[in-house]
Write a structure and sequence with these properties.
This is Xanthine dehydrogenase family protein molybdopterin-binding subunit. With 780 residues, the chain is α+β, with helices and mostly antiparallel strands. The protein has 16 helices and 31 strands. Helix content is 25%, strand content 26%. It is globular.
Length: 780
């Protein structure tokens, strides 16, 4: 068996057999099924049984192991790279540097500005310089460490405000994008004016499983990449360009994705793998350490925000002025798109007749920034909600009441000039969380049952604990923006009563594989529906971001299933002398409108082979113009959260007691899955609010591990009360459903910060909230 055959066989063997839950065909339960019910996750059994095909588990005959040498400096000139000692080590099969890249020397999903391997200068801590393939992982790591690199240290630019005047860090310059938004009259002022300066930290996606992959050379001189890609066709095209190959000679096979809250796979892991496989003619595997994962992939943009809000004496917003500075790190990645979201949503889900916002994304020598769930929107939400708290205090109004006087509704205008045409029940959401019953105060329970801030063994005293209640109202856009061509293709096949969905939409934990089964069950009335594994031999479906697979890929699956339905019903309708519209499929049976004809779907499809392919492409958008104006977004989703916190005002420790959530979801397609997505998003937002910050010193990442980077644990997760899900369908969205997981991530940090302000009287203008920011003034 060749290496290619072995890897393919291994990957196939570890892929869940085509059953409803990763088990064998025929094992699906007969009920529940279809849209609107809590169908179990398609991969639940495989994950629980340990057979889910993660990339770190793959194997192939003749496997070699890879290791990558990374820069220990944030900014340095490379004077020389000596690989001779590494190449001479026993067991080493290949060493590659920038000189061994046969195609494009740089890559990037949006802008190709990132070197495959640094060759003249390193621009961030952890940038790849060389890679090694060896017959044992320890040998590969030792060989990588044996590569001698001579550096000339350069001053690192780590403050984005200094980037404007600093020498160019990249041939493209330091400024990635500047967006000035001008809307209304700049000379208008309000009766009350409040100002604020806000800083948002560097949140890491911190995937459950660190990056891993397997590259297998093909007989035609190409290569197959087995990775947890969330956008396989883009990754294939990027890799093909760097390998100097036609895209048809590079195949990306998606393995099990162990969770994704960002672009799951960084190309800095995939490209060395492919190069080493092509150089050695052997399968090559790379399993990154947790440290490499922190250094290599993109993080949420650290952001500096300056705000000035104007309001009239009744608390209605008159004008918002803002400056937004996003730290992109060394390379552009998706920073231009993140900045557009930040600028467009800088005023939040509020009616603002006059807005003037300046936004910049700049390069520094800090770790790279890119797409992380709710990018751009989270940063500005924390800032504009801080401003709303300041306005409420200045006007002597309740925070919820001030917000209710200003909320957006369908038909209002965004500061970009775009009309909100989708459902925007912001007032309904805010009232729902405001009116929800508050949790009992600690004084209502025995003192020994209190859970003090700081944990079960918290050192604080009950007398120092203050309770705070705060609010956050957030918004995100769905699908791509500013002219992105959103399209997905899907095929539905029916053979002997079993339906198969073929679509390159990657299941990242958002539930697309389950949704695809539900759609086909709903349209065709079949119980047995399988979803084929994803690879780039299938037509593109796009990236697994912004809820797009529910909308775009789900729409393609529905259209293909309806075409198959017509193929199935047409012969029966012709025989009965009626149109197919007079036949319905329900509860596994096909019946005529008058009840004179009835048969089971299973009988109707027996022995037949039907198939159809369809596409879904939402209406187009347009880029923001020179004044930040334009219809840049396909749809919007909104969320309101009320946070209740307990703060030890002497120690500064914070415990989130409860988060009450109300969200507009368009339509509930799978209740259990939807609630799980919202709860997970809220918890990720709590991490951004209190603990998560990838710290750096002079551009060097400090403690790049899960002890130095504090993720929320089960003890940190608050009670999440989903008090209302507004099902007002968006008529342009597939099924009327909206993206569910990003908007609670965006809103939760703002709500927690608002509650801490209420408890302490402190401004709380930095995320995550450090203990020093939560210590109340001495006169409190």
């Amino acid at each position: 068996m060749s290496g290619n055959d072995a890897a393919t066989a291994t990957a196939t063997a570890r892929t869940p057999a085509p059953g409803a839950d990763g088990g064998a065909p025929g094992e699906q339960p007969a009920a529940p099924r279809g849209l609107g019910v809590s169908v179990p996750s398609a991969d639940a059994r495989a994950k629980a049984g340990g057979t889910y095909p993660y990339a770190a588990d793959l194997w192939a005959e003749g496997l070699l192991w890879a290791a990558v040498l990374r820069s220990p400096h944030a900014h340095a000139r490379i004077l020389s790279v000596d690989t001779s000692a590494a190449a001479a080590m026993p067991g080493v099969r290949a060493v590659v540097t920038h000189a061994d890249v046969p195609g494009a020397a740089t890559h990037g999903r949006k802008i190709a500005d990132r070197p495959v391997f640094a060759h003249d200068v390193v621009r961030h801590h952890g940038e790849p310089i060389a890679a090694v393939a060896a017959d044992h992982p320890d040998t590969a790591r030792l060989a990588a460490a044996a590569i001698a690199v001579e550096y000339e240290l350069l001053d690192a630019v780590t403050d984005p405000e200094q980037s404007f005047a600093a020498p160019p860090l990249h041939p493209d310059g330091n400024l990635i994008r500047h967006i000035p938004l001008r809307y209304g009259d700049p000379d208008v002022t309000g009766d009350v004016v409040v100002e604020g300066l806000y800083r948002i930290g560097r949140q890491d996606p911190a995937p459950i499983g660190a990056e891993a992959g397997l590259a297998v050379p093909r007989p035609d001189g190409g290569v197959e990449l087995y990775t947890a890609s969330t956008d396989p066709h883009t990754d294939r095209d990027l890799a093909a360009a760097c390998f100097g190959l036609e895209p048809e000679r590079v195949k990306v096979v998606v393995t099990g994705v162990p969770g994704a809250t960002a672009d799951r796979e960084d190309a800095g892991f995939q490209l060395p793998l492919g190069l080493l496989a092509l150089r050695t003619g052997c399968p090559v595997k790379l399993a990154a350490t947790r440290e490499e994962s922190f250094l290599g992939h993109s993080h949420r943009h650290p952001t500096l925000l300056r705000y000035r809000h104007h309001a009239d004496a009744e608390g209605r917003l008159v004008k918002v002025e803002a400056q937004i500075l996003m730290d992109a790190g060394a390379y552009a990645d998706s920073s231009a798109e993140s900045l557009a979201a930040a600028v467009a949503f800088a005023c939040g889900p509020y009616v603002v007749p006059h807005a003037f916002v300046e936004g910049w994304a700049v390069r520094t020598n800090n770790p790279p920034s890119g797409h992380v769930r709710g990018e751009g929107a989270l940063q500005v939400c924390a800032a504009y909600e801080g401003q709303m708290d300041k306005l409420a205090a200045a006007l002597g109004l309740d925070g919820a009441e001030l917000r209710l006087r200003n909320v957006l509704a369908t038909g209002d205008l965004l500061p970009t000039g775009q009309t909100v045409t989708c459902p925007a029940p912001v007032a309904e959401l805010l009232r729902a969380v405001r009116d929800f019953e508050l949790p009992p105060l600690p004084k209502d329970a025995p003192e020994e049952e209190w859970l003090l801030p700081g944990g079960l063994d918290g050192a604080g005293e009950p007398g120092a604990v203050r309770r705070g209640v705060g609010y956050g109202v957030g918004m995100v856009h769905m699908l791509g923006a500013e002219g992105t061509d959103e399209v997905s293709t899907a095929t539905v096949k029916v053979h002997d009563g079993v339906a198969t969905v073929i679509c390159a939409a990657v299941e990242t934990g958002q539930g697309f594989a389950t949704l695809a089964r539900q759609i086909v069950q709903e349209v065709l009335g079949l119980d047995e529906v399988t979803v084929a594994p994803v690879d780039t031999d299938q037509p593109p479906a796009g990236a697994a971001t912004h809820g797009r697979h529910t909308w775009v890929s789900g729409g393609a699956v529905e259209r293909a299933a309806k075409m198959v339905r017509t193929q199935l019903l047409q012969p029966m309708a012709h025989k009965l002398g009626m149109s197919t519209e007079l036949l319905q499929i329900q509860d596994g049976r096909i019946t005529s409108y008058d009840g004179a004809f009835s048969t089971t779907v299973a009988e109707a499809v027996q022995g037949k082979e039907l198939w159809a392919t369809a596409q879904c492409r939402p209406h187009p958008t347009e880029p923001l113009d020179a004044d930040g104006q334009g219809d840049a977004f396909v749809g919007l989703a909104f969320c309101a959260i009320r946070a209740v916190v307990d703060v030890d005002i002497e120690l500064g420790t914070v415990r989130v007691v409860e988060l009450a959530v109300a969200q507009d979801v368009g339509r509930v397609l799978n209740p259990a899955q939807l609630r799980a997505r919202i709860e997970a998003g809220v918890t990720q937002g709590v991490g951004a609010a209190l603990t998560e910050n990838l710290r750096t010193a002079a551009g060097l990442v400090r403690h790049p591990d899960l002890t130095g980077y504090a993720l929320p644990t089960s003890l940190d997760a608050p009670a999440v009360r989903i008090v209302k899900l507004v099902e007002e369908r968006d008529v342009v969205a597939t099924f009327g459903a909206k993206a569910a997981s990003a908007v609670p991530v965006v809103t939760a940090p703002a709500a927690v910060a608002s509650a801490v302000r209420a408890a302490t009287g402190r401004p709380v203008n930095k995320l995550p909230i450090r203990p020093s920011a939560a210590v109340a003034p001495t006169n409190s």
